[in-house]
From TrEMBL:
Name of protein: Winged helix-turn-helix transcriptional regulator
Origin species: Sphingomonas alpina
Domain HTH marR-type: 15-144
InterPro entries: HTH_MarR-typ (IPR000835), MarR/SlyA-like (IPR039422), WH-like_DNA-bd_sf (IPR036388), WH_DNA-bd_sf (IPR036390)
Top-level lineage group: Bacteria
GO MF entries: DNA-binding transcription factor activity
Coiled-coil ranges per UniProt: none
Family matches, as PANTHER family: HTH-TYPE TRANSCRIPTIONAL REPRESSOR YETL (PTHR33164:SF43), TRANSCRIPTIONAL REGULATOR, MARR FAMILY (PTHR33164)
PROSITE patterns referenced in this protein's UniProt entry, alphabetically: HTH_MARR_2
Amino acid sequence: MSFYTAENYSPDISVGYLAKQVYQITLKGLEPAFVGEDVSYLQWSALVSILYGRGLTCRALAHDLGHDKGATTRLIDTLEERGLVIRDRDAEDRRVINLRVTVQGEEIARRCMLRVLTLWNGWLADWSPDDATRLIGYLQRLRTSLETAVGDEPCA
């Protein structure tokens, strides 16, 4: 049995629509976390992706951020010019360019992360820890279902 039907559908119960709205509202709400740091949400996301080993090459970073490789290359160029990221040739395969965050980049990423965590903790203040954990589990499950259905495997 299908969950959605033409009769019961509306944007207010659309997973895709709600996910997009949550994302857009989150971006606006996170703006204070980056004030005075001279990084944008996207730049911070790239630093965190690299720090946590999810975007260690341009290709992997583009996948993790959901951007095309050209836009990601320009993003890395900006972060490199500002001394926040370094490109290094891979020792085993010289064709591969690895990314790593500099000390300055890590300091900025971690400062902003603490601000982001404070904002999220405020937004989830009236949620029980169990509810927040369940939400995270559901989102992870949905991500896995979508990756399987779309054939979008995470980059290693």
